[in-house]
């Protein structure tokens, strides 16, 4: 499926740098729609497409043999996936699971076209390597946070971050565990203790924050 003209404008808006590179903005991109929960790329799958995200949110996560998952980073419109970029440059397969967090669509072109742009444009090269560097820094900071900040504090901060105006967090405990890189049982233990203390209420698929000040104090 090819991009419609309106979608091409969206792509230009979220990737303004694309207009600087000859052939990129008006390229004949292919479109792939996805639904929340879809697995887009799996470990071992060949990386043979250069992908730009037009709408939605995608998550890249590591999963071990026991099924435990760790969120590495998210991709939103305007951001590139450093894992796929490195795979394209090094001609390697995917090592991590890439899945859709929301409904949306992405556009793609073949690896050969990506390599042609890399070979013919130093500006395009700079854009790609700058994205790899900045996103890699974010991943390092995320792992440093995991290493030095206790799970309890990170969990409180994550709940505040995802809380809506109604003080409700629409998320499953298993998803919180993936975000934090810990076991679901540990998340459940903290939530149960906080519920007994009157800080929040846990329901199926959601958490209601009762004491925002207390949660903020733990998050800082």
UniProtKB/TrEMBL annotation:
Residues 34-135 form the Cyclic nucleotide-binding domain. Keywords: DNA-binding, Transcription, Transcription regulation. Residues 149-213 form the HTH crp-type domain. CDD domains: CAP_ED (cd00038). One of its GO terms (molecular function) is DNA-binding transcription factor activity. Pfam families: cNMP_binding (PF00027), HTH_Crp_2 (PF13545). One of its GO terms (cellular component) is cytosol. This is cAMP-binding protein.
């Amino acid at each position: 499926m090819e991009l419609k003209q309106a979608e091409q404008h969206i792509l230009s808006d979220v990737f303004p740098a694309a207009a600087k590179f000859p052939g990129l903005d008006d390229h004949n991109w292919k479109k792939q729609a996805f639904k929340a929960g879809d697995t887009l790329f799996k470990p071992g799958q060949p990386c043979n497409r250069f992908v730009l995200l037009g709408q939605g949110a995608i998550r890249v996560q590591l999963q071990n043999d026991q099924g435990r998952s760790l969120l590495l980073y998210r991709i939103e419109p305007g951001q590139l996936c450093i894992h796929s970029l490195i795979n394209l440059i090094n001609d390697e397969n995917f090592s991590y699971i890439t899945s859709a967090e929301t409904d949306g669509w992405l556009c793609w072109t073949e690896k050969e076209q990506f390599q042609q742009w890399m070979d013919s444009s130093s500006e395009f090269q700079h854009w790609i390597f700058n994205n790899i560097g900045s996103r890699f820094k974010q991943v390092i900071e995320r792992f440093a946070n995991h290493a030095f900040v206790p799970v309890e504090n990170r969990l409180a901060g994550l709940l505040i971050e995802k809380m809506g105006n109604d003080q409700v967090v629409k998320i499953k405990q298993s998803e919180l565990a993936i975000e934090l890189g810990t076991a679901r049982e540990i998340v459940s233990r903290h939530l149960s203790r906080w519920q007994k203390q009157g800080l929040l209420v846990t329901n199926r698929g959601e958490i209601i924050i009762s004491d925002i000040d207390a949660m903020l104090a733990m998050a800082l």
